[in-house]
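Quality-control log, excerpt.
Job 1 of 2 completed; input and output follow.
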Amino acid sequence: MQLAEFRVQNYKIIEDTGWVPVQNLTAFVGKNESGKSAIFRALSKLNPSDGEGYDGLKEFPRQRYAAEITRTDWPVASGRFHLTPDEQRDISAISELCSEVRSVEVTRHYTGSYSITYHPDVGVDHVTPPDLIYAIESAIEHIRNLIAPEGKGEELGRIKEGLLAFLEEQKSGIPVDGHVHKRQIADLINAIKSRANEPWQHDILDPVTEPMYRLVRQMETYEGLMAANRYIIEHLPKFVYFDQYNVIESAIHIPTFIATLKSHPDTPGLRATHCLFRHVNLDLDQLDRLGSHKNAVDDNPIIRRQVDERSILLSTASNLMTKKFEDWWGQRKIRFRYDIDGDYFRVWVSDDLDPSEIELEQRSAGLQYFFSFYLVFLVESGDAYQDSILLLDEPGLQLHPTAQQQATRFFERISHQNQIFYSTHSPFMIDLDHLDRVRTVYEGEDGTTKVSTSEWPADRDSLFPLEAALATRIAEKILSGGKQLVVEDIQDLWLLQAMNYALRSRGKTGLSPEIKITPAGGAANLFPLALMMTAHKKPVAVLISGSNIPSAVIDKLPSLHIREGNGLLLYSSFVNRQGAGIEDLFSPELYHRCVKDIYPDLPLGQVSEKSPAERNEERGIAMQIADLVERRQGEHFERWRVAELLSDRICESPQNLDDETIERFSRLFHEINRLV
């Protein structure tokens, strides 16, 4: 079966998630306490690998418990499953009603009972005492209206009298709230048929039994449907739930493990270790005796046979794990060897590059992690790959971000055999190439858990991991690029691109085509981004205005291997203004015209109109205009609107640019090309 949608209701902080569509691999993203774990645990108990049922005292919504828990058998988890062709064929053979069924909806309730709905819908009513009473009354009415053949009136009268008395007696003995059994109806049919000895009597009495036969056929159809229900429940995929990812140690002291298992079975880490022993087919009684066998020097044939059997079990389990884990791991060919040395159970690992056996705990954290949870999956799912769904609650939190990204690729690979759902709030566990697989879990206005299916929630905390994942993707693209010029913001990008076009259209040298301009999103991000680029050994130059960079930061740049003339460019180097920005490289008349078009009521006479060569003010022209807009109009200066208009006019009429502006940008581009 393939799970297509699920729904969780009446569980902890969940009122109703609604139907949540899922794929082979689906990620549930949300902040802590949003309800991700509750969704997974409720869903896992639809058919749990660990056998745990629902506990209404601990899991029913607390605020509703006193008033509602006993009112009905509340539904908890539901799943809509697509049937495989083999399963469709099987249930069709079990119940004729299911010949067209292609999917089923299964719901489990707090009592552990199941309800099943078929699609297309099928159904047959259960035979109840009123149904049987009605059939008897129909038979009685039919008997009263019987007409005897010529000369058989007296004989038929005696038959009718006996049957009517018998049926009235049977009808009066049926409890209204009891159960009807097929044997009970069969006895009625036989009692009626036993009154017929001659052919004419059979011809008359056979129609009397037809209402009873209809009930028998209804019961047989109902029983077939119930058998189909049992088949569906028996073939539900196992849900294997992981919420603790304890790594198995390479050496396990068997007596200590047994004592802990008996005295504190809920001890963290015990589950995976217990699965390790179950995987080699050793029960606790066997384990308790292993220490006395030592190296099997005893000549006792019973002990010798036990040790030989143990060795075979260990070898078989080792080979099995090696083969199956190789299909999952997909990297090096890993070989496991299980061994018992006195009181210790040991796990040794080797691979195709290094045949030397190394303790499991000396291997990478990623290998230990995957081996441990894979072992639990393998044992608890009964090695039935096609019948298991993995629910991984916050997997890989202890792994490095690069290992978390590897984990998602690992999940992608094994999801072709088993559906995998995992919850996370780590941006490194989100695959932006498949956002259709992401479901956000968030807290609704009523305080209950919600799951997004068709649109993103407005809750920024829930979306933050997605935003961080996007930022990581963008950073990777930037850092993996070639020659780059890092600027403060998007306005610098627009104006540099416009002037590059203008210079080329006038036959002058512009920026090298190999250079990519990258806005850093503000001065605060500019230097960290540039430093990361230099760490990646990428050619990079940084172009900044002096107004936004504290002098203490500029003083530290040489120690970071960024200094003016060696990766660092200041706009002030091309105009006589320490706080110059890119706008100061243009003539003030051109920039003022663009400002006036955006802010027609602004008195630009209060802003210096000296040429760039004549200016020596600390602050650039854009900063001066920003102060004027805030002071005179009480609003924030939208620098981007002016930059957008200026870049459009440059591209529309590059021939109208003055020679000084062309000369300054020519020098700037020449210096950028030289540095990068």
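Job 2 of 2 completed; input and output follow.
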Amino acid sequence: MVALGDRLDAVLGTKAAGRLAEVFDMQTVDDLLRHYPRKYSQGMTVRGEDDDPPEEGEHITFVGEIEKADVRWTNRQPRREYLVITLRNRRPKVTATFFNAKYLKKQLVEGTRLMLSGEVRYYKGTMQLTHPDHLVLNSPSGRLGGTKSLKMIAETGRDGAGEFDMSVFERDFFPIYAASAKLQSWDIYACVRQVLNVLDPIPEPLPESFVQQWDLVSEDTALRDIHSAEKEADRELARQRLTVDEAVGLQWALVQRRNGALADSGPPAPFRDDGLAAELGQQLPFELTAGQREVLEVISAELAATKPMHRLLQGEVGSGKTIVSVLAMLQMADAGYQCALLAPTEVLAAQHARSIRDVLGPLAMGGQLGGEEQATRVALLTGSMSPAQKRQVRDEVASGAAGIVIGTHALLQDAVEFHRLGMVVVDEQHRFGVEQRDSLRAKAPEGLTPHLLVMTATPIPRTVALTVYGDLETSTLRELPRGRQPITTTTIFVTEKPQWLARAWQRIGEEVAAGRQAYVVASRIDEDDQTAKAEPAGGNLPPPIPVVTVYDQLRKGPLAGLRLGLMHGRLPAEEKDAVMAAFRAGEVDVLVCTTVIEVGVDVPNATVMVVMDADRFGISQLHQLRGRIGRGSHPSLCLLATNLPEGSKAGERL
């Protein structure tokens, strides 16, 4: 008998196991049985002579006798032989075409009883199967055979007299597996059946009390029924059990990861009353919220410990996550360690560098004229820097002169070496993988695992936090700093209320007249941009409007007379920087842009945002985009424009 851990080549043979290994990297019985069907094909019952004709494209199975077998030749050069067979007593007529006629013409002769299985097509009222799977059941020539996968399935279903048991194929469904040209779904099903026929009962891995509490079927039942149960209800119970298995497995892996990390040695950095963190706390021009103080106490205690911190800090855009991370990084700098802040875009990295230098002032001017005696230095490293600039920053990082190093994926390169890395901060965590943050932490001194703080402004449901970020402790900032104004969000259904969009442009004009600024966001750059060309469900709608078109229409139309700036990802870095600098300085009234401003843009004077084709964006993107406004002391307005109807799914989502 066979167990889950047994190798497939010992069960299926070298050839079948080799194909499974080549295509899907399956090595064991467990690997094969965990390759679950992606769907189940209904209407696969073997069809009789009196059954109603199937629909075109339906996968059907026939058992019948060959009435006529014609060998024909293609018209094109080189001419090739092919075989067309016709089944006896079928209305409408059923034919099947095979292209390897050289071999099959001796096997599929008149009077042969066989099974055919494949997708049906119609031509002039005739049902046609093209190169279907087939199984010879009885032949005048005595030649038996057929498609290997069907032969394997049939062999496992022989009756006591040694005849093929066709009840194997008399089913209301067949499982359909993810497959390839080298390995068809039938082939996988044949292998699964062969394994299930010799599989020992599977031991139950979960406690019996847990299985009973959640009313789950056993592991043995689930792994068999997901592949072979006739009833949909049984397959659904199997799905539920296997879903629980995956969730438990994920949680177990996360627990192992968390406990494994706790076994590492972290860099202890006790809070110093005379350090940079204390000095910045005393000279901040604003008061920290109660939530910020509470989170800082927790983080400070974890940084002082000898075990590495693993913490997720989530909070609404503008809730003050950055200043919390700065105070934490300064606590590490006070203990002689360096900190790395990883950002997903150059715009965000530059924004962090600018805002951190601004808030630190002389405390960020270590070794420079005007710097405090114990000051550190803030360095910025991005991919668009010149080789000379990168070299200079890398030297500062390697020597330890830079206590806070901010950068994009450029920080992950092998050429970047830290003097004494003690903490890694990852902003917009959903943009990075675990491997990326771990590769940065690996730059710490041997034997030390840096503290880890990951931040996100995207709201993360508790269930997602438990699964995706289950190796992290979670802190949440729920308050907005004093003086921040709420953001009103309204959806504009353009096709139903076009006057609302006209009013949106008027509103932008009113805000600019009051001395404030606005954003207009589009989903793609120009007609050549492939990022948003997929047509959403909802009918024949116009394609999304490109940002360059929006810019031209607005400056010649409803926003004529205002100072408009254009920004998108294809602009050179210098041009993007110039446009952003002008917008930040108030020299541009309206920034027409793509999602390049999704994160890292901080212009407190911007109070209105219009998102064109808002149905093209995900909830997370819309949340981030909206976070570009409401950053100052004025009430802000976000308008989501869509051509889809209000009653559509996308309309309801917006």
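Post-run check on job 2. The radius of gyration is 33 Å.
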